[in-house]
Amino acid sequence: MASQEGNISVLVANPHSMTSELMIGALRRRRQFHVTDSARTAQEVLDAVSTAPPDVVLVTANLADGPLSGLGVLRQIREQSPDVKTVILLNGPERNLVVDAFRAGARGVFFLSQCNFKSLCRCVERVQEGQIWASSSELSEVMEAFSQLAPMRVVNADGMRLLTNREEEVVRLLAEGLQNRDIALKLKLSEHTVKNYLFHIFDKLGVSSRVELVLYAVSNTDRLRATGGQSDS
């Protein structure tokens, strides 16, 4: 990544020059941040990420390209530079935008109208550390959206399924809010077996918590398939 002297490198993508300059100036006053570049359009963001990948990209939902163009950038960054973490900047809480942002690959959602700059700094730090930045209500919305999805299959870039049928059942029940005990009862398994399934699922998908697992599933719905794949064993 493009971090310098142990700092967190940040790219700011905002179509409004004044807002962008204020954000960049504030970040640069913090020793832990190094602002690598700024961008106004989707192409400028992608060019900057390709040239010198930052640790974290702060992207407003609406770039100069038009409404919700920022969401398209999130998807492209996820495909082209999966190690780069992204945070979507929204003016206020909108359920569909929150769900779509995580689905597009965002690791955090930040509301400019409700939070101060100190909170934004914490958001960047937490996301860089590999955590998810979202409130409990936002996570609930994401989990609800995922639980309403039709049965699908998590696949890799080659179209090969990553989880067995049973593992996918465990993920869906977990997303519905069930605890290990309830999942075990639902699937007629022991709690120990459910824990083993979760261990293997975490390992296969490279996540470390239940929340990350649900967000992973939501953010990869465009890679899901309805049929085919490996059997449950």
Give the arrangement of secondary structure elements.
Blueprint: E1 8-13, H1 17-28, E2 33-39, H2 42-51, E3 56-60, H3 69-80, E4 85-90, H4 95-104, E5 108-111, H5 117-128, H6 136-147, E6 153-154, H7 165-175, H8 180-187, H9 191-205, H10 210-219, E7 224-225
Parallel strand pairs: 1-2, 1-3, 3-4, 4-5
Antiparallel strand pairs: 6-7
Please characterize this protein's 3D structure.
It is built from 10 helices and 7 strands. It is α/β, with parallel strands linked by helices. The chain has 2 domains: 8-134, Response regulator (Rossmann fold); 144-225, Arc Repressor Mutant, subunit A (Orthogonal Bundle). The longest helix has 15 residues, at 191-205. The protein is elongated. 35% of the residues are buried.
Keywords:
single chain; alpha/beta; Arc Repressor Mutant, subunit A; 2 domains; elongated; disordered N terminus; disordered C terminus
The percentage helix is: 40-55%
The helix count comes to 10
Strands in their spatial order, largest beta sheet = 2-1-3-4-5
- Unreliable stretches: 1-6, 221-233
| Helix/strand structural class | alpha/beta
CATH superfamily of the largest domain: Response regulator
Largest sheet: 5 strands, parallel
- Average residue-wise pLDDT: 80
Beta-strand level of the residues, as a percent range?
5-15%
- What is the CATH topology assignment of the largest domain? Rossmann fold
Q: Kindly provide the name of the CATH class of the largest domain.
A: Alpha Beta
Oligomer: single chain
- Total strands: the figure is 7
What number of structural domains do the residues give? 2
Q: Any idea what the CATH architecture of the largest domain is?
A: 3-Layer(aba) Sandwich
Distance between the termini: 39 Å
Order of H and E elements = EHEHEHEHEHHEHHHHE
Radius of gyration: 19 Å
